[in-house]
What we know:
Distance between the termini: 17 Å
Strand content: 25-35%
Order of helices and strands: EHHEEHEHHEEEEEE
Shape: globular
Amino acid sequence: MRGGLERWKRGVGSRGARNAIAYALEGTCDAHLSSTTGAESLETYSAASDSAVTRFIVDNGAITTDQLNAGGLRVWLSGYDPITGEERGQQRLSPDADLLLDGTLNHPKSYSLAALLHPELADEFEALQDRLRERILLTWQTELNARRGHGGLIREEITRIEVVELQHRRSRALDPHIHRSFYVCQAGLGADSGTAMAARDSAVSVR
């Protein structure tokens, strides 16, 4: 992982959620994202509506997956279950509220160049990333913790986390650079409380 986990903020008018959806579904790395007007953001969102990302659910050491389209991703980022629509914890809507945690699975660019030249190496490289992703997600479920209560003073272990994987093929400079990003949902399932937690009441955090 490069640089640990970064925090995305909700931003004014939930701008953070709009940017996160665009970043996930436009298929480019963040060097290509620029400030856009509301109309341009809406057009981008509509164009990406047929795209989907994979959601990984880690529940007590077991990993399952499903697909989220743009609408499902928006619901997920907003702190609701994308399948049932159930609210997960009391939402904090201020611009400085954490929207998600973001991590990058990074490798030397030489790996990407080798994968472009040799299809067999490309297959092995993808399989390596899959194995690393599984190990990372299982580690996060045990090593991250949940905060709840006033000021997040109560910390507890997490039994369930949800992560969306983004697969990128280029670097910010447009060089071949195969890497993956992970959105970690702020709603987790605490071992002690037994309830889904998010936003103001509690949130996923680094120990």
